[in-house]
Design the sequence.
């Protein structure tokens, strides 16, 4: 299978960034950055991953959606600036990179505490949860683009295991649940 590179970010005045590859999923790179550092870090990671065209692998970038409204939420213009800057940067310099903007609730439904722990991506010492929210973006992007790989990542005992261990899964959803087709 072709390797897939994933980068997720939770934009704001303090931005959480996570990047990893499917084949080397145990090597997770978390960062917390200011807005300008965010653009530098994402550009550097994409430049390192982006080899000659056509790419020998897929690169997927997913950012958390943010809209300003009249609600009581804190207004975060930096989140909007970062989303726009990263979207422009990907379009301008890395046109073969897949770019997604996903809502926090949607990403957190896939990348919740249980599934991030099962994947080995939960960062317990993340006081503002920026890196964990970025990890949820990566989890959601993986589930949407490669659902079987996501399922295998959070259910390692299902990979060729015929023992009863796979029947004791209580922490993570089934493959069908991950796709939203399982029991309610």
Sequence:
């Amino acid at each position: 299978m072709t390797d897939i590179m994933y980068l997720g970010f939770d934009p704001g005045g303090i931005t959480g960034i996570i990047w990893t590859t499917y084949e080397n999923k145990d090597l997770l790179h978390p960062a917390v950055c200011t807005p300008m550092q965010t653009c530098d870090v994402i550009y550097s990671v994409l430049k390192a991953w982006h080899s000659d065209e056509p790419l020998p692998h897929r690169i997927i970038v997913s950012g958390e959606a943010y809209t300003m409204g009249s609600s009581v939420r804190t207004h975060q213009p930096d989140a909007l600036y970062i989303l726009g800057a990263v979207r422009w940067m990907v379009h301008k310099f890395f046109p073969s990179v897949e770019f997604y903007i996903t809502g926090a609730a949607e990403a957190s439904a896939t990348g919740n505490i249980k599934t991030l722990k099962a994947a080995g991506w939960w960062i317990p010492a993340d006081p503002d949860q920026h890196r964990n929210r970025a990890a949820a973006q990566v989890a959601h992007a993986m589930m949407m683009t490669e659902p079987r790989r996501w399922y295998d990542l959070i259910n390692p005992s299902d990979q060729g295991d015929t023992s009863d261990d796979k029947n004791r899964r209580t922490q993570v959803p089934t493959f069908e649940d991950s796709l939203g087709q399982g029991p309610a």
